[in-house]
Design goal:
Strand content of chain B: 5-15%
Strand order of the largest sheet of chain B: 2-1-3-4
Largest interface: A-B, 51 and 49 residues
Structural class of chain B: alpha/beta
Oligomer: heterodimer
Helix content of chain A: 40-55%
Largest sheet of chain A: 4 strands, parallel
Bound molecules: iron/sulfur cluster
Structural class of chain A: alpha/beta
Number of helices of chain B: 16
Order of helices and strands of chain B: HEHEHHHEHEHHHHEHEHHEHHEH
Number of domains of chain B: 2
Strand content of chain A: 5-15%
Chain lengths: 370, 401
């Protein structure tokens, strides 16, 4: 499909993509976490872009972060220090894990880009005071943005932005739903490119492309594959190879609980509420990230229902080495799933390097066994 | 440590403290028989409302430290790993999750002002013990304490009290709270004064002693016992200064320590530095329990603790932490800075390299960074650390010539 090709091409060279965006007079604000209020950034006239590590060798970041920091955080810092992110006009750090919090400090002290904001969202998402605080923090962030652009962000701006993101999100949800219904109509690597592309490409372009893809997929018949249905869970999966390795081993990815997947785009923002309240509500109700709290068992129940809904034969944990929030949840999520008879596989990944040969053997064994 | 019976440098209060701690643990162990409720609480959490409600607080982190000091860390960490917990997780959490052994909690109180780890750790325990969990969410103050944070945390202090009332089925006693608040404040002031005595040359005690005497300010803050004890300790320190007793016999070099102690190597490290005539006179860790007293209003305790508990050392920006380090370097007049890069504690350790750079830019003292872990000895290379300390001390000696 030529629309999918566009996503693949966009990922090939992020700086080229960035220059294209800047040609349209747009400034780029980078972020590292799915709790970054993109609607606000976009409403301010900026282009919100999720940052991924280019996976280059760590040289300069060695002077700031020890080796026991996750490769995502180290990798992105390396990109920044070495100038690979010089296209950025600013960055936003929502509250996430301890590592990102410290990265925010290091980043701020470097002062490389014009705009900088911490959006210190609550860590617990199950109380009224947290809800109020969330709206307060978003209000503060809106003021910070307004100061940067020297004009007011109106409710109309916000509503327009919310509509745009809802369009993107709902279409991504449709693609996932179609894949789950007709497994194999879209390749894992394509799925990866579409989601990642949606996070970094021009939003208008994405909003135009996705409905076309949905349309085409709706007309596509389910292929004759007999792959085993797999759900992925973890923080990020920034490796298209993992998707293809799973497929070669006989699996089909039918859903995920990834920070760069469904956790990012599921759930719509109400369009006729007060905009900031609506954005806050979406975060409060969304599939939870392990760095946040809603109940001690929220993620366990969620992964079980996700696996069931997608009739998963197995769940693969893709955990980034040194990622504490996910590592803490792994034992109980596994237990919850296994109680339901759903098999699990743990893959510890390092964003920096991947031993594909070894991975494929492990996937083959797992998929054979489930 | 400094408590060999034949040692003239021995601090007398050490025995008193052991006795107090023993009584405290016995009380905790028998809480159920005495119809008392037990709350597990994070080391940086607001314990005072528990004390006011006559609930016994238990600190799994303190237990973790004891496990580390008694060199049981490795086995327990391995046990946690066999349960599926990654070896990269905080070793306090790993040991606690694997051992049990503490009195069963009736409730869990988790304040995330020290790290995100405790949030996950307490969720594990909430599932295991199936008891209510209260989270005091103290947003990190990268650059400032904003009005929205103030409002949010203050509201949670009230929620905390409602939570306690619900679980104990008793009304909260605000008068008792006021008393407890005063005692907590007083003990923190005393603890700061004890720590300040080491500005004297030579220093009457070392950071290794502070690591030991810290236990009371953590566990019994808000009680008369803690106030009485720290009064005695302060008096003893002042007497030592008067009598010219120093912890390191020939104190020539004064060092500042950063991060948690390496619990299973305390004695060795203490001797190592002492052999070089160096005393670790202060540290960033033990002062964390009094660093925020400037935000506490002892006459309006409940209102002020929101700020005091939010703006503690680990919950502020790295540049602000660096400023505190620079202040300590000046106040204690140290000529070297030793940083423990602690695999277990990411919020404490990430940013250390920037602090190191700032210290190097703003002072002329040498800085040493050693890689270890506070409880898990598998991440400690004895010979490497020894070589590095020796080399570091050589530099300090050359400079002081
Ligand atoms: S992968 Fe884990 S440790 Fe790394 S940034 Fe994400 S949540 Fe933090
Ligand atoms: S050692 Fe660090 S990570 Fe572990 S509980 Fe303490 S503050 Fe948290």
């Amino acid at each position: 499909m030529k629309e999918i090709k566009i996503f693949h091409n966009a990922l090939k060279d992020v700086s080229a993509l960035a220059s294209k965006i800047k040609e349209n007079q747009k400034k780029i604000i980078g972020y590292l976490c799915s709790y970054a209020p993109e609607e606000l950034i976009y409403a301010a006239g900026f282009h919100p872009m999720r940052l991924f590590s280019s996976k280059s060798d760590i040289i300069l970041a060695e002077n700031h972060l020890q080796t026991y920091c996750c490769s995502l955080v180290r990798g992105i810092l390396e990109d920044s220090l070495s100038g690979r992110l010089d296209f950025l006009d600013g960055t936003v750090f929502p509250h996430t894990c301890d590592s990102i919090q410290r990265l925010s400090d290091i980043w701020r002290m470097q002062g490389r880009y014009e705009f900088f904001a911490d959006v210190i969202l609550p860590a617990k998402l199950n109380t009224q005071s947290a809800r109020t605080y969330m709206v307060d923090v978003l209000t503060r962030f809106k003021k910070d943005l307004e100061a940067a652009i020297n004009r007011e962000i109106t409710d109309a701006d916000l509503q327009k932005s919310i509509k745009k993101f809802n369009l993107i999100r709902s279409n991504l949800s449709k693609i996932y739903a179609l894949q789950s219904k007709k497994p194999g109509i879209i390749k894992g690597a394509d799925l990866y490119a579409i989601v990642k592309g949606s996070m970094i490409m021009d939003k208008d372009e994405v909003a135009n492309l996705l409905p076309v893809i949905v349309n085409n997929l709706e007309k596509t018949d389910a292929p004759e594959t007999k792959g085993k249905r797999i759900v992925l869970t973890g923080s990020i999966c920034d490796s298209p190879d993992i998707y293809s390795v799973i497929e070669t081993a006989g699996g089909i990815i039918v859903g995920d609980d990834l920070c760069t997947g469904q956790r990012w785009f599921e759930g719509l923002t109400l369009e006729d509420d007060a905009p900031l309240v609506a954005i806050a509500e979406r975060y409060m109700g969304r599939m939870i990230c392990p760095a946040k709290h809603s109940s001690p068992t929220a993620r366990g129940e969620n992964i079980v229902s996700l696996a069931r809904k997608n009739k998963a034969a197995g769940v693969v944990f893709l955990l980034l080495k040194f990622c504490d929030p996910h590592a803490f949840d792994y034992p109980y999520l596994k237990e919850f799933l296994e109680k339901e008879g759903i098999k699990t596989l743990l893959i510890e990944i390092d964003d920096q390097q991947q031993n594909l040969g070894q991975l494929s053997t492990r996937f083959e064994t797992f998929i054979h066994y489930i | 440590m400094s408590d060999k019976s034949s040692d003239p440098k021995k601090i007398n209060c050490a025995k008193k403290m052991r006795d107090i701690m023993t009584t405290y643990y016995l009380d905790a162990m028998t809480a159920e028989q005495n119809n008392k409720q037990v709350a597990w609480i994070t080391s940086g959490g607001p314990v005072e409302p528990l004390v006011a409600m006559d609930i016994i607080p238990i600190y799994p982190e303190n237990h973790g430290a004891m496990i580390g000091a008694s060199k049981m860390g490795e086995d327990l960490c391995i046990k946690a790993e066999n349960m599926g917990y990654s070896s990269d997780l905080c070793s306090y959490a790993r040991t606690d999750i694997s051992i049990g052994g503490l009195p069963k909690p009736d409730m869990l109180i988790c304040c995330n002002n020290i790290c995100g780890t405790v949030l996950k750790w307490y969720e594990v325990q909430a599932r295991y013990y199936n008891v209510p969990l209260f989270i005091l969410d103290t947003p990190i103050c990268h650059t400032r304490y904003s009005p929205e944070v103030a409002k949010y945390v203050r509201a949670q202090i009230d929620e905390y009290i409602i939570f306690l009332e619900k679980i104990t089925k008793r009304k909260f006693d605000y008068d008792k709270m006021a008393q407890v608040g005063k005692l907590a404040y007083e003990s923190q002031v005393l603890w700061q004064k004890v720590l300040n005595t080491t500005a004297h040359k030579p220093s009457p005690m070392s950071a290794f002693d502070a690591f030991f005497f810290l236990a009371l300010i953590v566990t019994l803050r808000g009680t008369q016992i803690a106030v009485g004890f720290y009064k005695d300790l302060l008096a003893e320190m002042r007497q030592r200064i008067k009598d010219g007793i120093s912890m390191v016999p020939n104190e020539k070099h004064r060092l500042l320590w950063d991060n948690l102690p390496i619990w299973y190597r305390l004695k060795w490290l203490s001797n190592k530095f002492s052999d070089h005539n160096a005393c670790l006179v202060a540290d960033t860790y033990t002062s964390a329990w009094c660093g925020a007293i400037k935000y506490t209003d002892k006459n309006n305790f409940l209102d002020s603790i929101a700020e005091a508990y939010t703006r503690i050392y680990l919950n502020i920006g790295v540049d602000q932490m660096a400023n505190q380090v620079l202040d300590m370097i000046k106040f204690y007049d140290v000529n070297g800075f030793v940083m423990h890069s602690n695999r277990s504690c990411k919020p404490y350790s990430f940013g250390q390299m920037d602090i190191m750079r700032i210290v190097r830019e703003k002072t002329d003292i040498p800085v040493l960074m050693i890689e270890a872990d506070m409880v898990d000895p598998r991440n400690f290379s004895h010979s490497q650390v020894e070589t590095r300390i020796d080399a570091f001390m050589e530099i300090i000696k050359q400079r002081s010539r």
